[in-house]
Every structure is written in C-alpha cells, then in structure tokens.
C-alpha cells in the first residue's frame, strides 16, 4: 500500500470526565466517522461510528486478553499517530470487480498496560466502511496465546439483523459441522440470541435507520483462528467469539498463538446505503496481496459440468464422466468436476485416460478429495492425502502427471487455528503446481482469494445439494438465494452450485422458475461455477436458455446494484466480456413488478430479456429504453429474469 502524509483530519475533544480524550477519524469523503477514546475510570478502549448524523454503532469496547496480560482494561494511551492516506489498486479474477481501488484514512493508537506492555489499535476508514485490527509491536522468542477478544459492535436498540446461526461443532452428518450451512434469520431484533447457541457467522448484515451495515473479517493468516459473533448480544452488543474447542485437528488448541511481533486480522464494518454495501469490496481490499499478480493464462476461472448433485455417488464412473466431459465441451465450459469415489470407481489409470480425452475437447478435469484426518467421520474417498505436507506433495506430483487442473477438497474441521493453518498450507503447496482449488464443507474464505489467486471458490453455504436432500430446503430456496448477494457472497466467491431447470431427484418439487435459476448464474459469483443441471435436463429447454448459459461470462469486470431487499428480492448488473448482464430473482411467493433503473449501466439501450411466461416456463423478447426511462419487468412468484444488454448499445 502507498502511504502519503495528509493534513490531519483529527479532532481532539476533551469530553466529560468519564473519558480521557476522543479522537475522530473520517472517511475521505467525510461522511463516515469513527471516534476512538480511552475511558478514564477503567482504561477501557472504546470506539463509536457515525454515518452523517446517524449513529451506526454506540460505544463499543476494544481489546484482547493474552495469556500473560490483559489488553482490554487498565490501559494508557501513549500516543496516536497522524492521519495517513492509504491507496491500493489491485486485480481479482474471481470477484465482483476485476480492477479495484481502495482509498482510506489511517490512524494508529499506541496503548500500554500498567507494566508497559504495548498494544497498537489501527483504524482505516474508507467511503464504504471502517476496519480495525490490533498489533503487538514487541518481540518475543516464545509464542503467546490470545485467550479472548473483547471487540464488539454495539448497535442502537431499534436496529434489525439478518444473520446465519453458527452450527454446533461436531454435530450433523458424520460430525462435519460447522460448515456455514444454515438458513438465515431475517430482520430479527438486535439482541436476539442465536438459535443454535453457537453464535452467528460472518458476514452479518444489519440495518440502522437508513444505513446498512455488514460485519466480517479478512486477512486471517495461519497464525490466527476464524472468528464469529458470540451467541448472546445483550442490548444489541455483538462481541467477537472464538471457535469451539472441538474445532481443531490432532487435538491441538484452537486459540491463536504466535511469537511477537504479531498482527491480528482486520475486523471490517461495511457501511452505507444498500447499494454501497452490496458493491463494497472491503473483504478483499484489506487482504494481503498475492505474491504475484494473477493472470488469466495462469489462473483460468470457468464454468463446469458436474454429475453428482442430480445423479449421485453411483454415477461417478468412467462412461458417465466421459459424457459430462462431452457436455462441458458442447456448452463451451472449461471444466468437468469428478466427485467423490473416483479413485475406487474409476481409478488413476482411467482418470489419466479421461483427462487425455478431455484435453482433446479443451476441457480440464477437477478431482474431489476428502481433507479429513481425525476431525470428522466422513467416509468418502480418496482420504488422507491432503492432511500432511508430505502426503499432499506426493499426490500433487501424481496429479500433475495425470494432467489434472484442479481439486475440490471437502470436510474440513472448523475454524480453530490448526484448521485455518491447514487451509493456508494446502493453498501454498498447490500454488507451484498450478492447481485451482475449491474448498467444500469449509469455512468462509477471509480475503484468501486475493492472497491466493488460484483459490477459485469455497462452499460455506447451504447450497444446492441441500435442495436435493429435503423438500423444506427446496421450499426455502427462493428467500435463501435472495439473501446471499448481501451476505455470504458479498465479498468472497461462493460455490452454491446453481442451476436446476428440470427435475429434482427423489420426487422433490422445485419451487423456482427457469428464469430464477438462470439469474443465479449472474447473481452468484464463483471462480469456477459448477452447474448442477445434467445434459438431459438442459436439452428440454428452449435453445435460448442453452445459448444464455454458453454466453454468460465466468468472470466479471464490474458489478452494480440495481434493486433489492435482503431475503425478498434482488437485481444486480454485472459486466463481463464487453457486455452487461442483469439478473434478478423474487424470493417471495407473490408476483413482484420491478421498474429497473439502468441509467448507471446504459442510459439508453436494447437488450434481450428472458423472463417468466404467463402460464409457466420462460419466454424471450427484446426490450428497449430511452434516456430517463425505466425497464418494467414482472417476476412470477419465486420467479426471475436475465437481461443481456447489447454490446453496441
């Protein structure tokens, strides 16, 4: 990052006797302000946040407790730095925007305990939010452990929340929880305890008056654990929580441990209108840069065929997978994913034959692996080839010789530091081999797609497979999907594995329309988009449906919010391949009429619209609009649309 001195924007205010002093740091546009202070009575560091005249966060505590010292109270302020400007420009191949520019103002407060141990609190404020982190600047040869974090987000009492509960560790199928696979609680009162008693996951969405707020974390390194919001939030105060002691591997402690100096992950607070939050890239803006910038030649995002969600384990056999290679080639998709059990039902020798065949079709093969050692009981194979460095390198050498392009690695063990370290070790080991990575049964990526450009996507969502498992999940799909652009898929790619335009297995009934399903190809971002529909199902659709799925890009150059409300409906515009694509879905069971304002995308134009037909199914037509006009679209109950704007317009 480039830092340049800026005239101090600092306002010193000697406040009431309950505080020592307060210092205000503002965003570059002056709209967002964070005020830091040290409470005189007990030396507790606090901050509060405003957007314009609106209080976004009330007095919220800061601080950490280390195994040898308490950095949450009894502190003294040694000094505060001047305000510096931060500027950063970077590229992403797997996000909502190809070229990203981050501008913020930065200030560091240097604190100390009574016996002189140092803690720095660093704030950065951009036009779309606030971020803070901690640093221990001293040096130590022996490691220290953080046993607790006091950081909190204290919302006004009238605020509402849209939150996903954290599942309880070692519960669920084969003890595979937590994997971020629950439905969201929508528009609940702040202070509501989590339904499962294990906390709330990131990103967490809130509304305070006219201001929307998304909380998350980023730049979580191998020396830290993944965090969440704690189960209880009295008076609307949400505190950072650390993982359950069972979220580990090989019995190692889950709490973060490191020698000093040591810097923690960023806690981020995206703030603004719903459009501002939906378009924010804070989750990657604050992540560590890649060691080498990504290029499309080295890292090739794409679309993939995939047999498993609709055909199941028994069809991971050579003849079926060869047919899915042909399917990918016919659709112009770059990859075919071969799922669990391939080592036993196909074998390495025939996988080599299949990879060679796929290469003649310009299709790359992706292979599934079970990550697990001792952290769950999932039986699928291949197993025990990803959980140690030596095993990984041996397998990676073998896969490189086979011509494999990427790996889907499943069934991770939670958010404890040892498991977070395992993610980093896999990403680092895979990088020299050029393998693209997809994590399933996994945690939320926390800025890693910027740091490791070959990380294409991660699950960490109640995705399409759950719709095939139970009718209640299919019933909940419309509103669930209308939540995800504002939460899970806000900052990081998400392997929801969308698209079912024909029938669900097991007699379950699909509740969404064909245009709804097509819109997910625009609304959901994933470096590799794995489509669930099989060749026979897609063959039943009109030719324009198949043409759209050939045409829709795998990567996006820009994203614009068009309209929406979390859990109810959403419309986003994304630009890729020189064109704008607009996708929209209705998450509710009543017809919804939209008037699309496309002035930020194309003030006037001509586009191809695929939308719900009056008597079911879909229809395609051309729409035009002039400057100042809006484009009317009617969404059927649980329906949707896609709009492809002509490149020349």
What does this structure look like?
The protein is built from 14 helices and 39 strands. The model is unreliable at 1-18 (pLDDT under 50). It is α+β, with helices and mostly antiparallel strands and 649 residues long. It has three domains: 2-285, Beta-galactosidase, Chain A, domain 5 (Distorted Sandwich); 302-460 and 489-501 and 524-552, TIM Barrel, CATH 3.20.20; 461-488 and 502-523 and 553-649, Golgi alpha-mannosidase II (Immunoglobulin-like, Sandwich). The longest helix has 14 residues, at 318-331. Strands 1, 9, 10, 11, 12, 13, 16, 17, 18, 19, 23 and 24 form a twelve-stranded antiparallel beta sheet that branches. It has a seven-stranded parallel beta sheet with strand order 30-29-28-27-26-25-31. A six-stranded antiparallel beta sheet has the order 32-33-34-39-36-37. Helices cover 18% and strands 35% of the residues. α4 (318-331) packs parallel to α6.
Task: Show the helix and strand layout.
Layout: E1 2-5, E2 11-13, E3 19-26, E4 32-39, E5 45-51, E6 54-61, E7 64-66, E8 69-71, E9 76-80, E10 84-91, E11 99-112, E12 118-126, E13 129-136, E14 144-149, E15 152-154, E16 160-163, E17 185-189, E18 204-208, E19 211-218, E20 228-229, E21 237-241, E22 257-258, E23 262-263, E24 266-272, H1 274-279, H2 282-285, E25 302-306, H3 308-311, H4 318-331, E26 335-338, H5 342-345, H6 348-360, E27 364-370, H7 389-402, E28 406-410, H8 417-430, E29 436-439, H9 448-451, E30 455-458, H10 464-469, H11 471-483, H12 514-523, E31 528-530, H13 535-539, H14 543-551, E32 558-565, E33 569-576, E34 579-586, E35 592-596, E36 605-612, E37 618-625, E38 631-635, E39 640-645
Parallel strand pairs: 25-26, 25-31, 26-27, 27-28, 28-29, 29-30
Antiparallel strand pairs: 1-10, 2-3, 3-4, 4-5, 5-6, 7-8, 7-14, 9-11, 10-11, 11-12, 12-13, 13-23, 13-24, 14-22, 15-21, 16-17, 16-18, 18-19, 19-24, 20-21, 32-33, 33-34, 34-39, 35-38, 36-37, 36-39
């Amino acid at each position: 990052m480039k830092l340049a001195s800026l005239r101090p924007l600092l306002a010193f205010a000697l406040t009431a006797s309950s505080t020592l002093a307060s210092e205000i740091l503002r965003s570059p546009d002056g709209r967002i302000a964070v005020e830091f202070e040290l409470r005189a009575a007990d030396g507790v560091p606090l901050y509060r946040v405003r957007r314009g005249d609106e209080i976004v966060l009330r007095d919220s505590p800061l601080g950490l407790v280390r195994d040898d010292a308490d950095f949450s109270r009894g502190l003294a302020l040694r000094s505060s730095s001047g305000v510096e400007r931060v500027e950063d420009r970077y590229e992403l191949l797997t996000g909502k925007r190809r070229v990203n520019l981050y501008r913020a103002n930065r200030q560091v407060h240097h604190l100390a305990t009574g016996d002189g141990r140092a803690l720095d609190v660093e704030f950065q404020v951009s036009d779309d939010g606030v971020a803070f982190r901690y640093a221990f600047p001293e040096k130590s040869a022996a490691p220290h452990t953080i046993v607790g974090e006091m950081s909190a987000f204290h919302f006004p009492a009238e605020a509402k929340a849209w939150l996903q509960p954290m599942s309880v560790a070692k519960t669920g199928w084969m003890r595979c929880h937590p994997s971020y696979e629950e439905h969201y609680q929508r528009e609940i009162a702040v202070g509501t305890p989590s339904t499962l008693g294990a906390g709330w996951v990131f990103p967490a969405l809130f509304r305070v008056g006219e201001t929307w707020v998304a909380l998350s974390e980023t730049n979580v390194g191998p020396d830290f654990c993944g965090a969440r919001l704690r189960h209880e939030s009295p008076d609307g105060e949400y505190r950072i929580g650390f993982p359950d002691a069972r979220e580990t591997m090989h019995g190692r402690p889950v709490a973060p441990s490191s020698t000093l100096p040591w810097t923690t992950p960023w806690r981020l607070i995206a703030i603004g209108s719903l459009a501002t939050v939906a378009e924010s890239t804070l989750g990657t803006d604050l992540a560590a840069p890649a060691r080498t910038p990504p290029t499309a030649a080295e890292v090739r995002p794409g679309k993939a065929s995939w047999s498993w969600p609709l055909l199941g384990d028994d069809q991971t056999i050579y003849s079926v997978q060869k047919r899915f290679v042909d399917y990918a080639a016919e659709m112009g998709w770059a990859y075919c994913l071969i799922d669990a059990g391939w080592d036993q039902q196909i074998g390495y020798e025939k996988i080599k034959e299949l990879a060679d065949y796929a290469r003649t079709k310009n299709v790359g093969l992706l292979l599934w692996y079970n990550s697990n050692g001792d952290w769950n009981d999932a039986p699928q194979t291949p197993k025990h080839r990803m959980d140690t460095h030596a095993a990984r390198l041996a397998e990676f050498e073998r896969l490189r010789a086979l011509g494999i392009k990427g790996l889907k690695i499943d069934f991770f063990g939670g958010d404890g530091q040892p498991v977070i370290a395992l993610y980093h070790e896999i990403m680092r080991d895979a990088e020299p081999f050029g393998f693209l990575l997809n994590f399933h049964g996994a945690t939320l990526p926390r800025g890693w797609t910027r740091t490791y450009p070959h990380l294409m996507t991660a699950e960490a969502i109640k995705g399409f497979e759950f719709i095939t498992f139970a009718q209640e999940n299919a019933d909940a799909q419309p509103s669930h999907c209308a939540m995800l652009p504002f939460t899970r898929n806000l900052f990081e790619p998400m392997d929801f594995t969308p698209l079912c335009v024909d029938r669900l297995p097991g007699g379950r009934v699909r509740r969404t329309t064909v245009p709804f399903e097509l819109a997910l190809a625009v609304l959901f971002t994933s470096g590799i988009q794995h489509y669930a529909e099989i060749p026979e199902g897609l063959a039943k659709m009109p030719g324009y449906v198949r043409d759209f799925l050939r045409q829709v890009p795998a990567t996006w150059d820009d994203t614009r919010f068009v309209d929406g409300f979390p859990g109810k409906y959403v419309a986003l515009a994304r630009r890729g391949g020189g064109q704008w694509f607009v996708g929209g879905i209705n998450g509710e069971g009543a017809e919804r009429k939209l008037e699309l304002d496309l002035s930020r995308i194309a003030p006037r134009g001509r586009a191809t619209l695929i939308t719900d037909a009056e008597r079911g199914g879909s229809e395609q037509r051309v729409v035009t609009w002039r400057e100042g006009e809006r484009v009317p679209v009617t969404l059927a109950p649980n329906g949707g649309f896609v709009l492809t704007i002509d490149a020349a317009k």
